[in-house]
């Protein structure tokens, strides 16, 4: 049966925990991972963003864990107690300490910000020169490789997040993809096939086909996260995932949790 290792609940920017689990059951999944956003940085821009978005799982994970235990009592599928942590190389010690303390079933790592700027926000970069965007792209892939090499995470989420931003799209190169694939090849961290945009933006998965092809060239295993935030997203995203698997022959691996 299929496993989805990346959905969100009201403990970050998703919907009620029980609703998400019930939707995963209706979608025919064998398990679902509640991987809410978390940032443990002490830099002021990241602290401010955390306050603005309410991403406080470092403070609330024990409450959520109790809620997950209650949901598990009558769930027909496995429910994983997970986390999606914003990664920045400067925060490695704090991330490691938090993950050691919290002892989640598994951890998802993601690079959302470079120099504390969220790379998913187009207006931040609309006045940037081409050279500045290329430099940011280089910094993004540096951070992604550092995430992989840190060995802090079981999963690396949406490894080509820049492609979601029209102001930064198209600057990644084949050289970037090979560098990341080589890092994955050496690491326990598994890249994620992320389905967060498959029902819009032209139906694109992350990583996109060129990047995914390089990962397959290196025999890098890939796991799955629908990145769903609403119950009504789970089933249609998994329908598209199954279609994609049939079209591409891609095999998705399960975590040993």
UniProtKB/TrEMBL annotation:
Pathway the protein takes part in: Amino-acid biosynthesis; L-histidine biosynthesis; L-histidine from 5-phospho-alpha-D-ribose 1-diphosphate: step 8/9
Pfam families the record matches: PHP
Xref: Gene3D superfamilies? Metal-dependent hydrolases
Q: Which reaction does it catalyse?
A: L-histidinol phosphate + H2O = L-histidinol + phosphate
The biological processes this protein is annotated with in GO are: L-histidine biosynthetic process
> EC number(s) in its UniProt entry?
3.1.3.15
The source's superkingdom equals Archaea
| Keyword terms, alphabetized | Amino-acid biosynthesis, Histidine biosynthesis, Hydrolase
The record's annotation in SUPFAM superfamilies points to: PHP domain-like (SSF89550)
Q: Does the keyword ATP-binding apply?
A: no
GO MF term set: histidinol-phosphatase activity
Q: Please report the stretch or stretches of sequence annotated as the PHP domain.
A: 4-194
Family that this chain belongs to: Belongs to the PHP hydrolase family. HisK subfamily.
Q: What is this protein called?
A: histidinol-phosphatase
């Amino acid at each position: 049966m299929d496993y989805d290792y990346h959905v969100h609940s009201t403990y970050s920017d998703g919907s009620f925990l029980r609703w998400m689990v019930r939707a995963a059951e209706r979608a025919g999944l064998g398990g679902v991972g509640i991987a809410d956003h978390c940032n443990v940085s002490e830099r002021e821009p990241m602290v401010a963003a955390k306050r603005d978005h309410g991403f406080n799982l470092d403070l609330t994970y024990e409450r959520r864990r109790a809620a997950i235990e209650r949901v598990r009592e009558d769930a027909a599928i496995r429910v994983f107690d997970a986390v999606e942590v914003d990664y920045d190389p400067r925060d490695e010690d704090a991330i490691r300490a938090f993950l050691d303390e919290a002892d989640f079933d598994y951890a998802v790592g993601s690079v959302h910000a470079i120099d504390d700027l969220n790379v998913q926000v187009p207006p931040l970069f609309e006045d940037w020169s081409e050279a500045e965007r290329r430099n940011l792209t280089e910094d993004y892939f540096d951070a992604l490789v550092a995430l992989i090499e840190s060995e802090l995470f079981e999963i690396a989420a949406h490894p080509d997040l820049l492609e979601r931003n029209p102001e930064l799209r198209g600057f990644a190169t084949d050289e970037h993809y090979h560098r990341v694939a080589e890092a994955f090849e050496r690491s326990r961290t598994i890249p994620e096939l992320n389905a967060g945009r498959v029902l819009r933006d032209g139906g694109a998965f992350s990583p996109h086909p060129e990047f995914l092809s390089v990962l397959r060239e290196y025999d890098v295993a890939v796991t799955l996260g629908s990145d769903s935030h609403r119950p009504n997203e789970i089933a249609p995203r998994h329908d598209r995932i199954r279609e994609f698997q049939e079209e591409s022959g891609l095999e998705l691996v399960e975590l040993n949790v």
